[in-house]
Design a protein that fits this description.
The longest helix is centred in the first third of the chain and has 8 residues. By secondary structure, the protein is mostly beta strands. The protein contains two helices and 23 strands. β11 and β12 form a beta hairpin. The chain has a 19-stranded antiparallel beta sheet that branches. It comes from Amycolatopsis cynarae. InterPro entries: Phage_tube_2. This is Phage tail tube protein. Pfam families: Phage_tube_2 (PF18906).
């Protein structure tokens, strides 16, 4: 057989872009991109074949199509501006303040999440446009080591279509964050011995299929909100007033957690996540011969019953973006 005549496409030429939709499910051309490490957004056509008894052993006779699903995740480094819309999309709304750069974006909870059209550029050859995208889960990781602070955004979409000519890729001249730029405050105390913080936002997305004449979901609804996470600390004490996380967990202590990641040069960008009320839910020590003892701690966030901060999570982003996301 002759060699194939197609032109191969390196993955490095791929990209992920998006635009906020004015109307849920109405395609919007990508206006922003983020350098990403992977994008697993794919379509499932909803094929099935009901098994029937009709004088034949064949289990699959009828070719039917039911619920189409469009889902997957986007992973990449966390930047001061690129990718921030996905953080906003996992929490709710953005209000921007300031008359000159840097601008402050306060990202607050909302009952209705914004929707996006996400463009999956495949090797610069063609794109898939996923319309009606909402974020089900968003994970922020700040690992110690030679890797950037990163996010994973799990997405559900209403439909997908082919874009023959991909949108031109544009990026911002900025660097992602690293662990040395992070600070963790727990119950009002700075924890400089902490590392490997992870914050998980789960919006409990529910897809509802109706008699719309379409196979994709008519509604993608954020039905609930749960925030949890974990961090590691170099072991110091079981019962110290600041470092005794085991005693804090067993006492059911409630308090605030905040994670701030900021470039060292003022005005070049920062991201701060605030959880006004958490409780420690799991504690364990990793004890190994020839290694430093590290404690792994899990936490659960909740909305305070009283007080000024009536929310589970809030984020404040400072960057050069003038308009609200």
């Amino acid at each position: 057989m002759p060699f194939p005549t197609i032109t191969e496409r390196p993955g490095s030429l791929s990209a992920v872009g998006w635009a906020k939709e004015t109307t849920f499910g109405t395609i919007a051309a990508a206006t922003a991109f983020v350098p990403n490490t992977s994008c697993s957004l794919e379509a499932e056509p909803g094929w099935f074949s009901p098994q029937t008894m009709q004088g034949t052993r064949d289990a699959q006779v009828f070719n039917l199509y039911g619920e189409q699903k469009f889902s997957g995740s986007i992973e990449g480094p966390l930047f001061p501006t690129m990718g921030i819309p996905l953080l906003v999309g996992s929490i709710g709304t953005d209000a921007v303040t300031g008359t000159a750069a840097p601008y402050t974006h306060t990202i607050s909870q909302a009952n209705t999440l914004p929707s996006f059209t996400i463009e999956k550029n495949i090797g610069g050859a063609q794109s898939l446009q996923f319309a009606g995208c909402r974020l089900g889960k968003y994970t922020l990781k700040c690992p110690a080591g030679n890797e950037a602070v990163s996010f994973t955004a799990e997405v559900s979409a209403q439909k997908a279509s082919v874009l023959a000519i991909p949108t031109a890729v544009t990026t911002t001249n900025e660097a992602p964050f690293v662990f040395a730029e992070a600070t963790l405050s727990l119950f009002g105390n700075a924890r400089a011995e902490a590392k490997n913080v992870q914050i998980d936002i789960d919006n409990g997305l529910k897809e509802t299929y109706t008699y719309s004449g379409n196979h994709g979901p008519s509604f993608i609804t954020p039905a609930s909100l749960k925030v949890s996470g974990s961090f590691d600390v170099v072991f110091s004490s079981l019962n110290d007033p600041i470092y005794g996380d085991w005693t804090t967990m067993m006492n059911g202590t409630l308090g605030a957690l905040s994670l701030t990641i900021a470039h060292p040069t003022a005005g070049t960008g920062s991201v701060a996540i605030s959880l006004p009320q958490i409780t420690l839910s799991k504690y364990k020590n990793d004890i190994k011969m020839g290694d430093v003892i590290v404690s792994s701690v899990n936490f659960e966030a909740s909305k305070p019953l009283t007080g000024a901060n009536q929310y589970t999570i809030q984020a404040v982003v400072i960057n050069s973006q003038t308009a609200a996301y």
